[in-house]
Automatic annotation (TrEMBL):
SMART domains in UniProt: BRCT
PROSITE patterns, sorted: BRCT (PS50172)
Compositional bias of kind Low complexity: 1-12
Lineage: Eukaryota, Metazoa, Spiralia, Lophotrochozoa, Mollusca
Annotated source species: Lottia gigantea (Giant owl limpet)
Protein name: BRCT domain-containing protein
Length: 264
């Protein structure tokens, strides 16, 4: 589902902390406030918040941000605080989780306005129990994991043309997660190479299937980022595409044979 929603082998199933760490140092976003969890603890050093909203339009909230000396971020990459009322799998929210951005409620702005200054935002982390139960994840925990390293660092990923959400949108999310987005369909299998595809593109994937490249559905990213898990086993598309291709070839062969017998 994509309401403004961006709605194999068992050994490849890994939690964020289980795969090889990136060669670059762990990313710590200095622009965020000190939080309750030690691994989320940061110093702002006077840096003013750059805020975005997702799933809501809030002109009054924007005025509060500017009155307190903050500003509206133009991209999720420069954002320090993302405000929303519930979990929606938008580009901003998935990108925000991937970057370790604090995802908070509107109450932060109301209380900050009363105080005349930006308050510690760690007390306002979004809690959406229904969505967290639905997708089986903890938002706070996932953000904590994401602050340590990029989930898809070292991965090369191609998105086929008919995938929903569309490839350009998926590319934005993937880049926030540290993946290298491949513009063309890979023909040769490499380590940490994945193709995100769908039933409509099964014919495009035949060379990749033949070469043993992992092919998964878009949920590999949409749910994987929420959980901060690399889990190829749970979202395989290769087997489904292989069976569809086999059945199609079988039907064609049967029709040809039947037609040949009919001519006799």
């Amino acid at each position: 589902m994509f309401f403004q929603e961006v709605s194999a082998s068992a050994s490849k199933v890994s939690k964020k902390g289980d795969h090889q760490p990136p060669s670059t140092p762990s990313r710590k976003r200095l622009s965020q406030d000190i939080t309750a969890s030690p691994s989320l603890r940061r110093k702002s050093f006077g840096i003013k918040p750059k805020v975005m909203f997702t799933g809501v339009v809030d002109e009054q909230g924007e005025r509060i941000i500017k009155d307190l000396g903050g500003s509206m971020a133009e991209t999720i990459q420069e954002c320090t605080h993302l405000i929303t009322d519930k979990i929606r799998r938008t580009v901003k929210l998935l990108g925000g989780i991937s970057l370790g951005i604090q995802i908070i409620t509107r109450q932060w702005l109301d209380d900050s306005k009363q105080a005349g200054m930006f308050l510690d935002s760690s007390k306002y982390i979004l809690c959406d129990k229904a969505s967290e139960k639905q997708y089986k994840f903890s938002l706070r925990h996932s953000i904590e994991i994401a602050t340590q390293s990029s989930m898809l660092e070292g991965y090369k990923i191609h998105v086929t043309k008919s995938v929903k959400p569309p490839p350009q949108t998926m590319a934005e999310i993937l880049e926030c997660s540290g993946a290298q987005v491949l513009k063309s369909l890979p023909k040769k299998k490499e380590d940490n190479m994945v193709i995100i595809s769908c039933d409509e593109d099964k014919t495009l994937c035949q060379p990749a299937i033949s070469n043993g490249i992992d092919i998964v559905s878009s949920e590999f990213i949409l749910t994987g980022i929420l959980r901060q898990q690399i889990d190829i086993q749970s979202y395989p598309l290769l087997y489904k595409l292989f069976i569809s291709s086999f059945l199609l070839e079988f039907r064609l062969a049967f029709v040809k044979k039947f037609y040949f017998i009919y001519l006799l």
